[in-house]
Specification:
Distance between the termini: 25 Å
CATH topology: Deoxyribonuclease I, Chain A
CATH superfamily: Endonuclease/exonuclease/phosphatase
Number of strands: 14
Oligomer: single chain
CATH class: Alpha Beta
Strand content: 25-35%
Largest sheet: 7 strands, mixed
CATH architecture: 4-Layer Sandwich
Mean pLDDT: 80
Shape: globular
Strand order of the largest sheet: 2-7-8-9-10-14-11
Low-confidence stretches: 1-58
Helix content: 10-25%
Length: about 270
């Protein structure tokens, strides 16, 4: 039985078994609402989602998450939707949106709402954002105080789906960013957010090539393993001239998520394929 379907950048679709079951969400809502800390703001859901979803044979809808390094969202909303049609994901994680807060708030992606975002405060462009399909219940988590331009740009939500809670983290690190600071801040937010009852999905452009072994890759893997998170991307996500790298990634707890699959998508929306 499939559960989460996650698509990263022009690419990766993860299906996770544990996020789909037949239990109603009401009991989970009552048990989890009091645990939300004062950094979180509850966003009420719409009553009628506009997108018609495809159901599995068991009558359940898998949660789908899509990540794309968009290299500038401005003017690409229609093209993005046309690339996703007809299987529209529940969540869109977009890195390098290149916008300020006002521009993002005024960006219309049909049937989606801006859930949370980070926009650079000193330098231009880059940034990360998460758009959520209308009708879904989620909580946005304030990560701004942990962010630093270039070094650690992050935003996050908790989404409630089929009686499960998943924390989705979208992240960006510049090639010129301080890697040690990135590791330190990632460790900090994971410690702040981590609970044993929540599934975690980190997706983004970390600018660390996972096709090549290195000390920095080992350092990142060691940190993520303390939270039982592992990379599930084993193919190139960016090709530039003669260079082929996997600098975009998805990290999940495969022991909790059970069955999952990754599907690369070549959209042409930017110079990133994942």
């Amino acid at each position: 039985m499939d559960d989460i379907k996650s698509a990263l950048t022009v690419s990766q679709i993860v299906k996770v078994k544990e996020l789909v079951n037949s239990t109603k969400t009401q009991d989970l809502d009552n048990a989890t609402d009091h645990k939300l800390n004062n950094l979180s703001t509850v966003v009420p859901s719409k009553t009628k989602p506009k997108i018609k979803l495809s159901y599995h044979s068991n009558g359940l809808v898998p949660l789908t998450i899509y990540h794309q390094n968009i290299s500038g969202l401005r003017g690409k909303a229609i093209e993005l939707l046309s690339q996703l049609h007809p299987n529209f994901p529940h969540v869109l994680c977009l890195s390098e949106h290149h916008m300020n807060h006002l521009e993002l708030q005024q960006t219309f992606i049909d049937n989606y709402k801006l859930g949370v975002s980070y926009c650079r405060t000193i330098y231009e462009k880059r940034g990360v954002s998460i758009f959520v399909q209308e009708g879904l219940r989620y909580v946005k988590i304030d990560m701004d105080k942990y962010c630093k331009d270039k070094d650690f740009e992050v935003c996050a939500i908790k989404i409630y789906f089929n009686a499960k809670c998943a924390c989705i983290i979208a992240i960006y690190r510049s090639p010129s960013g301080n890697f040690d600071l990135f590791i330190s801040k990632l460790d900090t937010i994971l410690r702040k957010l981590y609970t044993v009852t929540t599934e975690y999905i980190i997706c983004g452009d970390i600018n660390k090539d996972y096709l090549v072994d290195s000390d920095r890759k080992a350092q990142l893997e060691a940190l993520l393993k303390t939270f039982n998170l592992t990379s599930v991307i084993n193919f190139p996500t960016r090709t530039h001239k003669l260079s082929t790298t996997a600098i975009d990634n998805i990290f999940i707890d495969i022991s909790k998520m059970g069955n999952y699959s990754i599907c690369p998508i070549i959209s042409g929306l930017s110079d990133h394929d994942t």
